[in-house]
Amino acid sequence: MQTQSSEESNSLFSEEMITVMISTKNRWQDLEKALLSLRKQDLKHKVIVMDDNSDDGTSENVARLFPEVTLYSHQESRGYIVRRNEAVRLATTPYVLSIDDDCTLEHPGIISEMAEFCRETRCAAVAWPYIDVKVSNCVQSVSPSEGLWQGCTFKGCAFIVDRIIFLRLNGFRESFCHQGEEEDFCIRLLQFGFPVLLGKGHAIHHHESTKRSWERMDFYGSRNLILFAVFNVPVIFLPFQIAASAINCILYGFKLKRPYQKTRGVIYGILDGIRLSQVERKPVSVKSFVRYRKLKSKYHKIG
């Protein structure tokens, strides 16, 4: 795919094409770095910050130091999944980019690259390249070679969605509460014939916050793998998928020497799955599920 200069990109997009949404809670120091990096981008864009009831001065600081940002300050905490859904509904641009509050856009042309990619592909969703800085310098969600490539999901810290399609599919499933919402949304995209494309451009840098709760992540990570199966997997594959997810979660918990929350999450996943299945269960077709499994193991080249 050919790239264009910043001047050419700006002439193509006289109006904002992308809104950047950030859901945050009590991570002002991380958020400030993210917002400063967005200021350096060479393509005009909008920014929405959803403050999920911070008590560390986040809203006050954003309002004072970043007047260009549209800030929504909430008096109750409902979690980043709910806030991301709200942000997409509030956005007015064709595409919405989601980054975590502990991410930075180090290269000034990233949003230009995103706008060009979205214009050329008219994509429904994009997994943009990112680097987990504290883990390695390896770029994730990157195309293996030239051409367009499809994956099975995107990372919550670096994805783009077509706003209309996102809303048409009712966004992220809010019963997930925390973690796992991306893959659940993407398998529903697949069911409706929308591929998740791998983006092409400079990587977003993800600086994993020191304020993350591993107990919370262990619990919801396991719980939501079970819910993913209950909600989406065709009945012919469902028992195997639940059993495999449960066993893998528990074994991984022991490997990490954190088995309690992983096991607890599996138990709650089964219980919540039973409770929510009548309302939430809408399994994809066998064809879509088989396609998802293939994409999970290997990217697919389109065209």
Automatic annotation (TrEMBL):
A GO molecular-function annotation: transferase activity
Keywords assigned: Membrane, Transferase, Transmembrane, Transmembrane helix
This protein's name: Glycosyltransferase, GT2 family
Lineage per the UniProt record: Bacteria, Pseudomonadati, Bacteroidota, Cytophagia, Cytophagales
Family matches, as Pfam families: Glycos_transf_2
UniProt keyword Transit peptide present: no
Protein species of origin: Pontibacter ummariensis
NAD is among the record's keywords: no
Database matches in PANTHER family: GLYCOSYLTRANSFERASE, SLR2126 PROTEIN
SUPFAM superfamilies: Nucleotide-diphospho-sugar transferases
Membrane-crossing residue ranges in chain numbering: 225-254
InterPro entries: Glyco_trans_2-like, Glycosyltransf_2, Nucleotide-diphossugar_trans
Domain named Glycosyltransferase 2-like: residues: 19-140
